[in-house]
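Exercise 7. Given the encoded structure of a 379-residue chain, write a plausible sequence.
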């Protein structure tokens, strides 16, 4: 047989080609590894801030819920102590318990009350803010409207031959709506608002479940941006009170068993509707010093027409003669609030969580629970 002749490219095919494949494979593996590491890097660097945000958000939520408990504690008052001096016990007997209650909550009513937390003391750096309001210091539409007769109830019936045949509730609402139009620079039409409200309530067969149901009314669209009350936070807002918003859930409510309003505990939006001075930021200390003087003449039952100047006239710096009789007729002369609301805010870093809670007073019981949460909104 003839000897097989070596191919001139034998070495290239047998040796050098093998090394070329290894180099290409190595480069491909390195590129793949680089892509995987790069992807993992971006995933990890994106996850870390998200994880930090989630942790801060949960902490802020816990602080907000803790703020609700702080409000309940504020309403309940300090626990009775056995180590009370005789002079203190005598003084507490002299003063009505309602006056003691007012001294505790009136300074911060409708205002932010802040608590700063430090990690070295409290376990984390953060802030809790609470703002207490009274639901019976607002207009209870479920009590002002008769869903059986489909008409507004009347606190003051019109006198025979009077110019207006409307009931006291209608006249009072018209006054509030007109005031709202003035405060919002005619962003609302009072007559259309009243007309739409009457039609909406007339079509219902049961009371409102929640006051936010009114947001579906076209003429009430102003409130879509102002649902829950936002307390003032700086002196600039205080100086332009006429331009501050009116808030839906701060003006109306569905909680309470009476159509009357608690004058000592008016909400901020009701104060605006009555033409009284509204809440001012950072004046809690000033009010704490004045509240003892305000409550000196406090009586569990009051005739406002004769006692206003000695009591609430000092609180609101206002004359009752400027308020229509149709509204004064709804001022409850008995002090017995049952429903409160609280806006509680927790903040950790730049993360803020806010909750709005309805709090109901409980009958005396062995468990010692004085207030409980009726409803909770995350806002």
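Solution.
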């Amino acid at each position: 047989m003839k000897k097989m002749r070596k191919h001139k490219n034998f070495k290239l095919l047998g040796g050098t080609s093998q090394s070329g494949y290894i180099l290409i494979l190595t480069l491909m593996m390195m590129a793949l590894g680089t892509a995987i590491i790069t992807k993992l890097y971006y995933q990890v660097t994106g996850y870390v801030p998200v994880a930090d945000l989630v942790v801060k958000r949960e902490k802020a939520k816990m602080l907000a819920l803790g703020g609700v408990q702080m409000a309940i504690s504020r309403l309940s008052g300090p626990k009775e102590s056995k180590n009370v001096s005789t002079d203190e016990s005598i003084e507490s007997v002299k003063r009505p318990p309602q006056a003691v209650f007012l001294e505790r909550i009136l300074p911060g009513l409708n205002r932010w009350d802040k608590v700063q937390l430090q990690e070295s003391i409290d376990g984390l750096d953060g802030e809790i803010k609470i703002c207490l309001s009274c639901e019976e210091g607002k207009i209870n539409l479920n009590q002002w409207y008769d869903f059986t007769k489909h008409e507004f109830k009347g606190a003051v019936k019109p006198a025979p031959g009077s110019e207006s045949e409307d009931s006291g509730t209608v006249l009072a609402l018209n006054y509030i709506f007109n005031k709202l139009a003035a405060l919002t620079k005619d962003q609302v039409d009072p007559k259309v608002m009243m007309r739409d409200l009457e039609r909406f309530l007339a079509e219902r067969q049961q009371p409102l479940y929640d006051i936010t149901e009114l947001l579906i009314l076209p003429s009430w669209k102003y409130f879509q941006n102002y649902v829950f009350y936002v307390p003032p936070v700086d002196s600039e807002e205080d100086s332009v009170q006429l331009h501050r918003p009116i808030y839906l859930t701060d003006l109306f409510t569905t909680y309470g068993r009476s159509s009357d309003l608690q004058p000592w505990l008016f909400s901020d939006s009701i104060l605006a509707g009555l033409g009284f001075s509204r809440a001012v930021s950072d004046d809690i200390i000033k009010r704490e010093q004045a509240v003892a003087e305000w409550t000196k003449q406090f009586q569990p039952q009051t005739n406002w027409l004769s006692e206003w100047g000695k009591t609430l006239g000092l609180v609101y710096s206002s004359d009752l003669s400027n308020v229509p009789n149709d509204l004064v007729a709804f001022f409850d002369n008995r002090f017995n609030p049952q429903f409160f609301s609280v806006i509680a805010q927790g903040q950790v870093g730049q993360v803020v969580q806010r909750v709005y809670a309805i709090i109901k007073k409980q009958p005396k019981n062995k468990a010692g629970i004085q207030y409980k949460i009726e409803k909770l909104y995350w806002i």
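Remark. The CA atoms of residues 22 and 220 lie 75 Å apart. Students should compare their own answers with the one above.
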